[in-house]
Amino acid sequence: MMATGLWWIRRDLRLRDNQSLRAALAGARTVIPVFILDPGILQSRYHGRAEQRKAFLFGGLRRLDEALRERGSRLIVREGEPGAALAALARETQASAVFAEEDYSPAARRRDGGLARAGLRLLLAPGVSIRHPDRVRKADGAPYTVFTPFSRAWRAVPLPTEGDLVPVPRSLPAVAGGLSSVPLPDLPLSAAFPPGEAEAQRRLVRFTAGETAPIYAYGEGRNRLDQDGTSVLSPYLRFGMLSPREAAVRALQAMDRAPETAARNSAEVWLTELIWREFYLAVLYHFPSVLTTAFNPALRRIAWRTAPKDLEAWRAGRTGYPVVDAAMRQLTTTGWMHNRARMIVASFLVKDLLVDWRLGEEWFMDRLVDGDPAANNGGWQWTAGVGTDAAPYFRIFNPTLQGQRFDPEGRFIRRFVPELARVPEKLVHEPWRMTHAEQEAAGCVIGKDYPARIVDRPLVRDRTLAAYKRSQELARVVRG
Asked: If pLDDT is split at 50, 70 and 90, which confidence band does 45 have?
């Protein structure tokens, strides 16, 4: 056992089921928890403007520091390029190694490679995903690019159990008082997401525990925009305030004790969503180019429109389509968006407005508290029809029908688009159908109080299909 090791916290802001912390405690008598404020990440294209996500991260680090202090330790925060910052701290403390949770994004892998060049010994443990991306492959060793066979192979590996979860340490080695630590930036938090491991555990218990737990209605409830039918755990999984392995264990336990078949199936749907997260992590790991281009080579030549006014109307939630506008305003207000809504607004931007999916992906990363390059990219490419196992390119969501189906009384719309608060229920998804007298009575004159539709959907479908088909034709010419 070495005398001192550094526990480098990245996406594992928790003490429960933390495999990198366990490795550090097993390998060193003194363990120093450290977080690096890395300008290369905090000011990057993906994270530079994400104020709500950074606020959530910094809040989570404060909660983690409190938990560490309760156990006799504390968090050391340093700033700078990670290799240089960690090397300096290792010299100060005579630390022999750096323990960390392995991350799979291209930027993380480049960063970790730099530590060796800085002369540091980096010992990586699992934890960002339940399965390492290299562990779920086809029989010939190739990575999966279709979800269903990936899911089957994922489930064929022994599933995690309660006994696999690492308990919270009762105490931790003291950290020398002379070590300096820079203050964490103080940014305003989203009220919708209190940061920290304790809140993650509270939400997990609320969602999975008991005979009437929401997980047993998740199969249907996950699609309802007007109901609290999801776990709302994605930000906590994003930063490891909740272990994905523990989430899977709770899903499996809920399946085992389900009161009936339908309830068990709903719990299994939530487990499947966790596997989708694993799938997108694996896709990014094996195909890092997806961050800049479509996975499908035949759809890399789509002639996207340059439409700054349409893009701005979409961002601001002023498209004239109520469910789209409500979802986009939910994103701005809370830093989060319901997954069904993410598909609706993505389809609208890409297939109704014919605007490049990468502009939508970038906007989501600027605004989402749970913004994760793998899941965000995978979701956008899926809806755009250009990615792995994507929705067919000719599938175009009808936002009006989607709203009527998944927000039938318009409660979600009225919550985020107050201009429509007094519009009759039968017209809240189609306010343009109101007569002028009805608009006056509802205090919602179209074009004045609420914007007119920025696009006539039936007229643009052919435009979109033609652009996709033209890209395919060009690809065939290039291949030929």
From this structure: confident
Residue 118 has pLDDT above 90, yes or no: no
Mean pLDDT of 422-427: 98
Q: Which residues are catalytic?
A: 273, 276, 304, 339, 357, 380
With beta carbons less than 8 A apart as the criterion, state whether 390 and 381 touch.
yes
Give the whole-angstrom CA distance, residue 99 versus residue 107: 18
Asked if 378 and 299 count as a contact pair (C-beta separation under 8 A), the reply is no
CATH tag for 197-286 (out of 1.25.40.80, 1.10.340.30, 3.40.50.1100, 1.10.3720.10)? 1.25.40.80
Given pLDDT bands bounded at 50, 70 and 90, which one contains residue 390?
Answer: confident
pLDDT (0 to 100) of residue 8: 98
CB environment 260-285: b (16+ within 10 A), e (fewer): eeebbebbbbbbbbbbbbbbbbbbbb
The long-range contacts involving 329-335, CB below 8 angstroms and separated by at least 24 positions, are 329/416, 329/417, 330/416, 331/364, 331/367, 331/368, 332/367, 333/416, 334/190, 334/191, 334/192, 334/193, 334/369, 335/52, 335/53, 335/56, 335/190, 335/192, 335/193, 335/235, 335/367, 335/368, 335/369
Mean pLDDT along residues 416-426: 98
Q: In what order do the strands lie in the sheet with 76-79?
A: 76-79, 28-37, 2-8, 97-101, 122-125
The DSSP code sequence of 439-451 is HHHHT--BTTTBP
Kindly indicate whether the domain formed by 2-128 is annotated with CATH number 3.40.640.10.
no
User: Taking 80 as the threshold, does the pLDDT of residue 480 lie above it?
Assistant: no
Is the Cβ–Cβ distance between 282 and 252 less than 8 Å? no
How far is it, in rounded angstroms, from Cα 137 to Cα 282? Answer: 10
297-479 folds as DNA Cyclobutane Dipyrimidine Photolyase, subunit A; domain 3 (1.10.579)
pLDDT at 132: 97
Sequence-distant (6+) residues with CB within 8 A of 52 are: 187, 189, 190, 335, 367, 368, 369
Q: How far apart are CA 265 and CA 432, in angstroms?
A: 40
Q: What are the residue ranges spanned by the domains of the chain? A: 2-128, 197-286, 297-479
Encoded amino acid at 455, one letter? V
CB 442 within 8 A of CB 422: yes
Beta strand pairing call for 28-37 and 122-125: unpaired
For residue 167, the SS3 value is: coil
Gap between the Cα atoms of 268 and 261, Å rounded: 10
What is the rounded average pLDDT of the residues 312-337? Answer: 98
Q: What is the mean pLDDT of the chain?
A: 97
What end-to-end distance do the CA atoms of the chain give, in Å?
61
Identical fold, 2-128 and 297-479? no
